[in-house]
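Why do we care about 3D structure at all? Because function follows from shape, and shape follows, mostly, from sequence. That is the central idea of this module. The next example makes it concrete: a single protein chain, its amino acid sequence, and then its structure expressed as C-alpha cells.
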Amino acid sequence: MASLKYIYERIESKKRDYASYKFTEDENNAFKAFFDLAQEFDEIEDLYSMCVAIPRAFFGLEAKLYAIDPRHKELVLVAKTEEPGLGLYTSPPVHVKPAGHAYVSEARSLILTIHGKEVLQDQLPFRPVDNVLGFLELYGRPDFTPHDMLFFEKYANRIGFNIHNRYILEKNIEHLRFIRSLVNDIEHNIIVPNMIYKLLLRNLKDKVEKNLDVERLLTAYEADKCADGEFAEIIEELRDVNTGLVQEFENIEKHYKNMSLFLETLLRRSHFDKGRLTLRTKQCNMMRDVVRPQLERFAARFREMGIAINEQASGMPEEEMITVVDVGLMSQVYANLFSNALKYAEEITDRYGEKKKYLSYGHEVIKDCFGPAKDGIKFNVFTTGRHIPPEERRKLYEDGYRGSNALKRPGTGHGLAFIKNIIELHGGVAGYEPTEYGNNFYFILPR
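And the structure:
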C-alpha cells in the first residue's frame, strides 16, 4: 500500500503534467464528460458507443472502437460513429495494429492502442496479448498534430481503464449469478436429500431394535424352556451381531449429525447472498453442544496418533458453559483446532522425566478483557510439542500461511484464518501463546 507522502508526491507530479499538457477547455470538458457518463451508463454497449461519440461531439471526428469483447473472445469492431448499426463485430483492417504510441495509418486515420491495467490482467475473462484490449481509430481531419496525439493517447488510456474495470465487473456479476444458481442446486441436490438420511437412520434404528427384541425373546425362551442350552450358540452369535450393529449405527449417526451440521452451516444461503459468513447465534452448552461432539469425532484418530486427552487439565464443567454462539461455525472452529492437534502434537518429557503426548482444552474468565466491566471467556486448546518460533507467531492466523513445522505435512494454511474470521464475527479475538510443555491456541469471546 502506498504511503500518504507518496500519494501527495504523485498529486504534485500530476499537477505539473497537466500544466505542461496545455489542454484546451474543450479537451478538458471531453475528459469530464467521459468520466461522468462512464458512471452513468450500465451496459457495456453504451460505454463502447460513448467512447466513439465524445470525439465526434467535441472535435467533429469520426471514430471506430475495436475491443476484445468478452462474449466474442476476439478483437472486433464494437462501436462506430458512421452508420453505427452496420458492420459490427468484424475484425479490424490491416492498417490497425498495436504500437507503443499513437500513429497515423496509411488510411490517414489516427490509431491509438488501448491497454488494460497490467496488474489486473488475471482478473479478466480472457488473456489479452501484450495487455492490448483494443484500438481507437479517429478520422475526418487532414492531419493530426503532436498535441492531438498527446490528448487522444490520454483519452485512450482512460478508455482502457474504464473498459478493463467494466469487464471485471461483468465477470464478477456473472460469477455471482453462477454462485446463486449453485446455491439453489446445493439446496435442492445436497441439503434436502441429506435430510432423507435422517429418515433412513430412523428406519435402520427400528430394525436394530427389532433384532434386539428377538435376542431378548430367545434369551428368555432359552432360560424358561430349554435348559439343555440348544439356543445358546445362536443367542451368542445374535448378541455379537446386535452389538456390532448398535456400534455401527451410533458411528453412522454421529457422522451424519456432524456432516449435516457442517453442510447446513457452511452452505448457508445467507453467506452467498451477503458475500460473507453470517451468524445464526443461540444459547448453547459449549461443552455438550460444541466441544464434546468434536472430541468424540476425533477420539479414534487421537488414539491412533498416541495423543491422550488430559481431562483434568481441561477444567470445562458443563454447567458453566452456557454461551451465545453459532453452534455450526463454532463446531468448525474446534474441528480445525483438533485437526491441527493431530498434525502437530509432539511427545515431550515433563519435569519428572516422564514422556507425554497429550491435548487439553479448557476455559477461564478474563476480567475487563473488552473494557471496564466487560469480561471475556478464554477458550484454550493446548497440545504438547516444541514452541512455534517467535518470528512466525504473528503470521499464524494469516490466510495461506504455513509455518516451518508444517511444510512437510498436508494442509492449505486456511484453518487458522477461518478460526480468526469466525471468532471476530462473534466479537472476539483469536491468538496463540507458548506454554511450559507446548502450544496453546485460544480465542476469547465476550462473556
